[in-house]
Specification:
By secondary structure, the protein is mostly helical. 62% of the residues lie in helices and 4% in strands. It has nine helices and four strands. GO terms for molecular function: inositol hexakisphosphate binding; phospholipid binding; translation initiation factor binding.
C-alpha cells in the first residue's frame, strides 16, 4: 500500500537525517558513532541491491515500490545513490554496461566472480540462477531511472534519470553481444523502461528499436546456440509487437496515482 511505503521511506529518511528511529524496541541514531552515517549509507545501498537480485528477480512487479523509495532517498541523500551504484556495478557489471575481459594471470574462479557469478567452495552457480539475479538487478535499475518519489521537492532534476538509461542502451548496443546474457538484459530493460524512453526520446528511440531489430538481433543470433534461444525468442517477439503497434506497453506493476491513495 502507498501509506505503508511512505512509512518505510520516512523511517529511512529520518535515520539518515540523524533523527532517532525506533527499531526492535529501542531508539537508534547515526549520531551514536562517528562512522554511523557512513555505515548506514553503505548497508542501506547494499540492501537495495540485494532486493534487486532477490525479491525483484522472483517478483518483477516489486521493482517499482523498491525503486521509488530508493529514488526519493537518493534525491535527499546522494551518498546512498553513489554507493548503491558501486554495489550494483560490482554485483552486476552489465549495469555499467561492461563485459570484463579475462586478464593474464586471473584464475577462472576469479574471472567468473568478475562476470557476476557466485562462486562458493569452487562451485559456480547454475546459469539459470545467475541470469535470474542479473535480470532482477537490471529491472530494478530500469525502474529507478524513471521514477520520482511523489512527495519530494520536484524542483531539482532526478538524481539518476532517464538520460542514464538512454546512455546505457546506446553503450549496450556498442558491445559485442554475449549468448544468453545480452538478449535477456535488453528485454528486461525495454520491458521496464521502454515506455518511458519512448515518451522522452520519440523518433530517436524508434530509430534505436529498428536498429536492434534489423542489425543487433542478428548479431545476438550469431553467438547463440540452439539450446539458448529462449531469451532471444522472447526479445524478438517483444520487438515485433512494439514495432507493429508503434507503442511500447506500460510495464506490469507500474505505480499508478491511485496506488498512493491506498
Amino acid at each position: 500500500a502507498g501509506s505503508k511505503l511512505r512509512e518505510v521511506f520516512d523511517k529511512i529518511n529520518n535515520l539518515l537525517s540523524g533523527k532517532p528511529v525506533q527499531t526492535e524496541g529501542q531508539a537508534v541514531s547515526v549520531t551514536q558513532h562517528p562512522q554511523g552515517l557512513e555505515f548506514v549509507c553503505y548497508k542501506l545501498a547494499e540492501k537495495f541491491v540485494k532486493h534487486g537480485e532477490g525479491e525483484v528477480s522472483f517478483h518483477h512487479d516489486s521493482a517499482f515500490p523498491i525503486a521509488v523509495v530508493l529514488s526519493g532517498i537518493w534525491e535527499l541523500h546522494p551518498r546512498v545513490g553513489d554507493i548503491f551504484l558501486a554495489h550494483l556495478h560490482k554485483k552486476c557489471p552489465y549495469s555499467v554496461p561492461f563485459y570484463p575481459a579475462r586478464k593474464e594471470g586471473t584464475s577462472m574462479e576469479e574471472y567468473q566472480r568478475m562476470l557476476g557469478y557466485e562462486v562458493r567452495d569452487s562451485k559456480v552457480e547454475e546459469q539459470d540462477h545467475f541470469l535470474k539475479r542479473m535480470s532482477g538487478m537490471i529491472r530494478l535499475y530500469a525502474a529507478i531511472i524513471q521514477l520520482r518519489w511523489p512527495y519530494g521537492n520536484k524542483q531539482g532534476a532526478h538524481p539518476h534519470g532517464l538520460s542514464y538509461g538512454w546512455r546505457w542502451l546506446a553503450q549496450m548496443l556498442n558491445l559485442e553481444p554475449l549468448a544468453d546474457v545480452t538478449a535477456m538484459l535488453l528485454l528486461d530493460f525495454l520491458e521496464v523502461c521502454g515506455n518511458a524512453l519512448m515518451k522522452q526520446y520519440g523518433i530517436q528511440f524508434w530509430k534505436t528499436m529498428f536498429f536492434i531489430q534489423k542489425s543487433y538481433i542478428p548479431r545476438i543470433e550469431a553467438v547463440t546456440s540452439s539450446g539458448q534461444m529462449g531469451c532471444l525468442s522472447r526479445l524478438k517477439n517483444f520487438m515485433q509487437k512494439c514495432l507493429q503497434a508503434e507503442e511500447v506497453p506500460l510495464p506490469k506493476g507500474i505505480l499508478t496515482p491511485s496506488f498512493w491513495r491506498t
